[in-house]
Write a structure and sequence with these properties.
Blueprint lengths: L8 H11 L40 E4 L6 E4 L2 E7 L7 E7 L5 E6 L4 E6 L3 E5 L2 E12 L8 E10 L5 E7 L19 E5 L3 E6 L2 E6 L5 E6 L1 E7 L2 E8 L2 E8 L5 E5 L5 E6 L2 E5 L3 E6 L5 E6 L3 E4 L4 E6 L3 E6 L5 E5 L10 E6 L2 E5 L5 E5 L5 E3 L8 E3 L2 E6 L3 E6 L3
Antiparallel strand pairs: 1-33, 2-3, 3-4, 4-5, 6-8, 7-8, 8-9, 9-10, 11-12, 12-13, 13-14, 15-16, 16-17, 17-18, 19-20, 20-21, 21-22, 23-24, 24-25, 25-26, 27-28, 28-29, 29-30, 31-32, 32-33
């Protein structure tokens, strides 16, 4: 059973960097002839609001992403949905943000196991967007061979869904040994994908694939990856001595650093940082060195604004903005000197915080100062990209609201 309410933020956060790059429209210039005058300049394209300060109130319905997971590149949203024409066979949909209809849609896995999907990822390889999907496949046994499960990873062209490569990872490929069984409590997932690497988390193990070919680069048992930033994979390393945060080279898996301070989770962040949160504190660590860049009390969620700021919040108890270059806090709420409603942060982009302010509804804050930027806005978008605000509703699916200012 798909559960729309289960939203993978790390996915939303890892998935948001790719969404910021709008592809150029392909085209071929006409061959010059005497009857074909050549333009002296290309026509100007209308400016796209970014960051957006206003949105259309009515959004374009894009459909219902399975498990609430989606990825965006340019003006297209990609997601999986249940195919009504076949039981338990999901379709991969590429939805036009402008028109609200699929650019293309196709069944993607006839052998998938229900509720065993990992997050969908988008990465740009050699200038072209690619989609990466992983899932548990069940192979029907014959004779004395029983049914078995394996992890299948596929790469596709984002333009039309053409499959580029497929890799099956059976028990003999598992870093923890051939007796490894996939966990239903912690199903395999794609942590991140870049031009070079696809990082997979499998229970307490990691497998890193070549993004262009699917060839396995390395695997590591007792290391569950959580983020890929630049050339470093950061995750949780376990041993008889306990748990620690570890940074490993994406190329070969060699450990570069570790930090044994207590923590509960690791979240991808960007800007050369990861979030390491626990019940008593949240730390921002440099991915290359493990150096602590900033520390704040209690458990926080942190998001990079894609430029120079980190915004962290603890529900409606605390909100702060941190300079990504030096780790210094720029401001924080609550502000004892002002009577302000504590905002609930929904998303962040390019110096703007999109939030709700209790009964006052959606609001936009200036992430550099913490002050109100726009006090009356139509929506509080789940994700903001150039030209659009995307809203993921538990009741109605995914909607694209055009940015109007």
């Amino acid at each position: 059973m798909w559960r729309l309410e289960r939203i993978v933020l790390a996915a939303v956060t890892g998935l948001a960097v790719a969404a910021c790059n709008t592809p150029n429209s392909p085209g071929t210039a006409p061959t010059p002839t005497a009857s074909t005058p050549q333009p002296t300049a290309s026509p100007a394209k209308p400016a796209v609001p970014d960051p957006a300060l206003a949105f259309d109130r009515d959004g374009v319905a894009l459909g219902e992403p399975a498990d609430g997971q989606f990825a965006v590149y340019g003006d297209t949203a990609y997601y999986l949905r249940d195919d009504p024409s076949a039981t338990d066979i999901p379709s991969l949909v590429a939805a036009d943000l402008n028109a609200g209809r699929p650019r293309w849609s196709k069944p993607i896995a006839t052998d998938s196991m229900t509720d065993r999907w990992g997050p969908l990822r988008v990465a740009v390889l050699d200038g072209k967007p690619r989609l990466f999907i992983s899932y548990l496949a069940r192979l029907k046994g014959t004779g004395t061979q029983g049914d078995r499960e394996l992890l299948r990873v596929i790469a596709l062209e984002a333009a039309d869904g053409t499959r580029l490569w497929t890799v099956d990872l059976d028990d003999d490929k598992m870093p923890a040994g051939a007796a490894t069984r996939f966990s239903i409590f912690s199903p395999p997932s794609i942590v991140a994908a870049t031009n070079d690497h696809v990082v997979l988390a499998i229970d307490n193990s990691a497998i890193v694939l070549d993004a262009k070919t699917g060839a396995q680069r390395w695997g590591a048992a007792d290391f569950r990856p959580a983020a890929l930033d630049g050339t470093t994979v950061v995750g949780t390393a376990t041993s008889t001595a306990g748990r620690k945060v570890s940074g490993r080279a994406a190329a070969d898996g060699k450990e570069a650093w570790s930090n044994a301070d207590p923590f509960d989770r690791i979240d991808p962040l960007g800007a050369g940082l990861v979030t390491v949160a626990g019940s008593t504190s949240t730390r921002l660590l440099e991915t290359k060195t493990g150096t602590v860049k900033a520390t704040m009390p209690n458990s926080h969620t942190c998001v990079h604004d894609t430029e120079a700021l980190i915004v962290c919040w603890n529900y409606t108890q605390h909100v702060t903005a941190i300079d990504a270059t030096n780790g210094k806090a720029l401001w924080e709420l609550p502000d004892k000197s002002a009577d302000r409603i504590m905002p609930t942060v929904v998303s962040v982009r390019r110096g703007m915080i999109y939030a709700t302010a209790g009964g006052n509804g959606p609001v936009i804050l200036d992430a550099r100062t913490g002050k109100d930027k726009v006090t009356s806005v139509a929506i509080a978008p789940t994700m903001v990209i150039p030209g659009y605000g995307l809203v993921l509703s538990a009741r109605g699916g995914l909607f694209a609201h055009r940015a109007t200012g």
